[in-house]
Design goal:
Structural class of chain A: mainly alpha
CATH superfamily of chain A: dinb family like domain
CATH architecture of chain A: Up-down Bundle
Organism (chains A, B): Parageobacillus caldoxylosilyticus NBRC 107762
Number of helices of chain A: 7
Oligomer: homodimer
Protein name (chains A, B): DinB family protein
Number of domains of chain A: 1
Keywords (chains A, B): Metal-binding
GO molecular function (chains A, B): metal ion binding
Distance between the termini of chain A: 14 Å
Family (chains A, B): Belongs to the DinB family.
Helix content of chain A: 55-70%
Largest sheet of chain A: 2 strands, antiparallel
């Protein structure tokens, strides 16, 4: 299996769970926040989806500027966003070449360091897993008790 | 940097945040649960600490049986547990040799598969990050609003 294929498998083993959780969020709960200073469910879900897309886009094109670019998106349905951005992200990850993985990205402006692409993509995974962990608590607080395991291996 | 040193650095970049969160949990909140079906704060914190220790112990000794062994522990103070188990886990990770990393662990009984040690240790990281994400929500719900970033790079 190529490095890209392994990464796609690893990505989906967590992303499919993220999508399963997002699919449980009804529109009436989009503005749900556990506390007044928390991100809303809508903001948390969107943040997860947009972030990994930006990590992948930055890695594919070797362009750190893409990481901080704002995503203009008119779709507001979380289920549709989850489907679209998972597909776009998967396609980017699938297209990564060995050369892409070996590039070092100058992310001094964002993280104060130059980061090898492989490590940058692990940070993308960690970011997804972290916020998905939070989403589990949110979704349980919305009344769902039948929740998946935190990772689904192929 | 050796593979073990890199792993210790990666482990601590997340574990130090876990410990910072655990240090915010006052005894009166040990039994706090966001919902009746959630793990209590005490159970969640203990699960994080014991789990990584068991991952590391299993990896170090190449013995899958260590993964499911129950930990007998009389200490109930979460701050003390965090300190002790972080130290024990760090020592195990530091001691990993290249040979240890190359071993394949037969975890058919637990995960239905044989898993290379390096991948098994990434699962340990993912597990920590997932539950730490949940802990962030818990601690915010206890009234703390000044929370660290989800990872602290050295």
């Amino acid at each position: 299996m190529s490095q890209a294929q392994k990464l796609v498998q690893y990505f989906l083993s967590h992303r499919n769970v993220t999508v399963e959780l997002i699919n449980k969020i009804e529109e009436k709960h989009y503005d749900y926040k556990p506390t007044p200073t928390s991100m809303s469910a809508k903001d948390l879900a969107t943040h997860i989806l947009f972030s990994f897309y930006k990590f992948a886009n930055t890695a594919k094109h070797g362009d750190p500027a893409l990481f901080t670019e704002k995503i203009e998106e008119t779709e507001t349905n979380l289920q549709k966003l989850a489907q679209t951005y998972t597909e776009k992200t998967k396609q980017l990850l699938e297209s990564l070449t060995n050369e892409d993985f070996e590039r070092v990205l100058d992310l001094t402006n964002v993280f104060g360091a130059k980061i090898p692409t492989a490590q940058f993509l692990q940070m993308a995974m960690d970011h997804e897993i972290h916020h998905k962990g939070q989403l589990f608590v949110y979704v349980r607080e919305m009344g769902h008790t039948d929740l998946p395991l935190f990772v689904k291996r192929g």
